[in-house]
């Protein structure tokens, strides 16, 4: 009898749980719903269960289908709020503080994912003034799925911007939203669904991959039972053993005194300038652990208070000690090293900074042209210059880790598919770095992302606005080939799709950082395209000059452009730079160029019979200065179709 009673209570409890009306995570407190468009509210409950949704003094009813899903359609709503929404079945859910405005999906890779926290030193004032309940973000957690599309997001909630919460907002997305809100005074909802390092194929459906057989083959492998576990377990054992070995063999940890101790004799250590790489100072081809040490004099005025220790960027991993005390660690190369030292860690007079660097492959050391300094209030100590260093241990290069989230279809299934019922205004996209090694494929791969998302969302050709790759890597003295330039070209060709837009940023990148700090201008330039494509502003100048056509006249080539605004100009005055010209031999040389009205004339005495021109055709076309008078840069381009 007791067993029967227990089974009865369990089944009753289970049936109650099944009957509970459940909502997707996007339909939650503080959400922003798209204005001026029919809205879908959906969820799950027991088959046949009646569900009522009450919103803005009206009630909408439906019944759950056999698949336990239900859906109601709300008529188009005007911008405004806040509102509440009641959802009733066998239970009741109250959703509070809803705004009606414009919803933008912010997707791509790390430059879209990068949060305001990473640029807080640059945008301190903007962060301090960020309180705005009308700008909100939903952060989609990074996850992946290869078997089939998920029906709900793994986690996430809507959060309004303020000086604390905005630190986790996408920086590009925040400045984009801020610009639009200031002009239109309409609530802006950002759905941040971006993953650092992700290639375009990770955001495609399995169906779309039919056009890309190699990626489809990869997906088939990841669908196999046990395939990921075998990779994960094998790599984990190798990596665990690698780190265990360098820990055991690191002399800096196992000498009589650890090398972070202030009493260690370092008179026999070598010297090198920081920032810099150790392969230029006697450790060529070395991977493993290298210790760095610098003694500095600190005035009493900098002690007894919190201090910032900035160590630029370090390849790959670092642990920092100040006066023998642990100060912090970062496990991969891209984040800026910003360590907060508590009051009392520094002392008047001599202080010792020690950095233990682990490098698992490539060149190890300190990235140049970054800040290396101690900062307390208005007092700064420059840490660049001579440091002592010693080898802790060597190690073989560590093989690259498999990132499952980068594999075909995984991100689409887990992070995009669950929100296809949610009405949006459009998408802003910052991605391409991970596909720059395959620029020819990107000509079809990237448009496939746009077409697939539009087809799956079933909202027509909604605005899809993207960022062209920034300038990056070393500059070159002579014209040459560039996979980054070819990727930018693939992005520019994508403008042939309807209702797209491209923000050109080859003037605000950083040669030594794939994550340039200037995210405000990126957001603003995307917002200009939004004003044109999403808000119908026919007067806004939304783009810099875009190459249109060429004409050969004797020893010169005349170039025509669109998006010239109120006229072309050479930014900063003087001559136009970064034009190259070639004859039939396909050998490019630097050229002279001059503006004539809304045309550019290009020539070189070395090429009497020119056939092709290239502009800003490089990984880092630093100094390229063709703009329109509204201050927007021209996109890089080539007139030839010579494959590289």
TrEMBL record:
GO terms for biological process: carbohydrate metabolic process. GO terms for molecular function: hydrolase activity, hydrolyzing O-glycosyl compounds; sialate O-acetylesterase activity. It comes from the Bacteria. Gene3D superfamilies: Immunoglobulins (2.60.40.10), SGNH hydrolase (3.40.50.1110). InterPro entries: Galactose-bd-like_sf (IPR008979), Ig-like_fold (IPR013783), SASA (IPR005181), SGNH_hydro_sf (IPR036514), SIAE (IPR039329). Residues 102-206, 409-513 form the Sialate O-acetylesterase domain. It holds the Pfam family SASA. Keywords: Hydrolase. This is 9-O-acetylesterase. It comes from Niastella populi.
């Amino acid at each position: 009898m007791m067993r029967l009673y227990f089974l009865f209570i369990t089944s009753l409890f289970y049936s109650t749980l099944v009957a509970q009306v459940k909502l997707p995570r996007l339909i939650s407190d503080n959400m922003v719903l798209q204005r001026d468009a029919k809205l879908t509210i959906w969820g799950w409950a027991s088959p046949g269960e009646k569900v009522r949704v009450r919103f803005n003094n009206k009630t909408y009813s439906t019944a759950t289908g056999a698949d336990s899903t239900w859906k109601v359609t709300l008529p188009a709503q005007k911008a405004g709020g806040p509102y509440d929404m009641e959802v009733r079945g066998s239970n009741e859910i109250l959703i509070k503080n809803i705004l009606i405005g414009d919803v933008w999906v912010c997707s791509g890779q790390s430059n879209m994912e990068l949060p305001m926290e990473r640029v807080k030193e640059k945008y301190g004032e903007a962060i301090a003034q960020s309180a705005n309940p009308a700008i909100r973000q939903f952060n989609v957690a990074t996850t992946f799925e290869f078997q089939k599309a998920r029906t709900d997001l793994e986690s996430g909630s809507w959060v309004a911007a303020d000086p604390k919460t905005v630190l986790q907002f996408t920086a590009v997305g925040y400045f984009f939203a801020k610009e639009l809100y200031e002009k239109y005074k309409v609530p802006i909802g950002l759905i941040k669904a971006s993953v650092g390092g992700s290639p375009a194929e990770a955001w495609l459906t399995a169906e779309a991959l039919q056009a890309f057989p190699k990626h489809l083959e990869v997906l088939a492998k990841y669908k196999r039972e046990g395939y990921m576990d075998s990779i994960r377990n094998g790599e984990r054992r190798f990596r665990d053993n690698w780190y265990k070995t360098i820990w055991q063999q690191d002399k800096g940890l196992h000498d009589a005194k650890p090398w972070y101790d202030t009493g260690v004799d370092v008179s026999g250590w070598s010297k090198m300038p920081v920032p810099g790489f150790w392969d230029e100072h006697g450790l060529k081809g070395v991977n493993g652990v290298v210790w760095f040490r610098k003694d500095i004099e600190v005035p009493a005025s900098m002690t007894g208070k919190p201090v910032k220790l900035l160590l630029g960027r370090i390849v790959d991993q670092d642990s920092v000690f100040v006066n023998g005390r642990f100060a912090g660690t970062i496990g991969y190369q891209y984040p800026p090293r910003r360590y907060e030292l508590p009051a009392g860690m520094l002392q008047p007079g001599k202080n010792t900074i020690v950095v233990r660097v682990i490098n698992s492959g490539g060149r190890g050391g300190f990235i140049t042209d970054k800040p290396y300094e101690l900062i307390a209030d208005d007092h700064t100590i420059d840490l660049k210059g001579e440091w002592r260093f010693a080898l802790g241990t060597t190690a073989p290069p560590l093989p690259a880790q498999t990132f499952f989230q980068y594999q075909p279809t995984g991100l689409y299934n887990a992070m995009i598919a669950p929100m296809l019922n949610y009405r949006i205004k459009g998408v802003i996209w910052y991605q391409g770095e991970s596909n720059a090694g395959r620029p020819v494929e990107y000509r079809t791969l990237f448009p496939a992302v746009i077409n697939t998302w539009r087809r799956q969302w079933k909202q027509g050709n909604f605005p899809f606005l993207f960022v062209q790759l920034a300038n990056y890597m070393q500059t070159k003295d002579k014209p040459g080939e560039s996979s980054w330039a070819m990727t930018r070209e693939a992005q520019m060709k994508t403008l042939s799709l309807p209702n797209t837009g491209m923000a050109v940023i080859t003037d605000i990148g950083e040669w030594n950082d794939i994550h340039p700090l200037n995210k405000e201008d990126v957001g603003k330039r995307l917002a200009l395209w939004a004003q044109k494509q999403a808000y119908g502003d026919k007067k806004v100048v939304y783009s810099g000059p875009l190459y249109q056509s060429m004409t050969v006249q004797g020893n010169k080539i005349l170039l025509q452009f669109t998006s010239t605004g109120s006229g072309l100009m050479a930014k900063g005055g003087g001559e136009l730079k970064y034009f190259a010209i070639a004859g039939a031999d396909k050998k490019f040389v630097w050229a002279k160029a001059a503006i004539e009205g809304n045309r550019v004339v290009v020539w070189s005495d070395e090429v009497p019979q020119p056939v092709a021109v290239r502009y800003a055709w490089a990984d880092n076309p630093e100094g390229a200065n063709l703009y329109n008078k509204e201050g927007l840069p021209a996109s890089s381009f080539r007139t030839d179709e010579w494959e590289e």
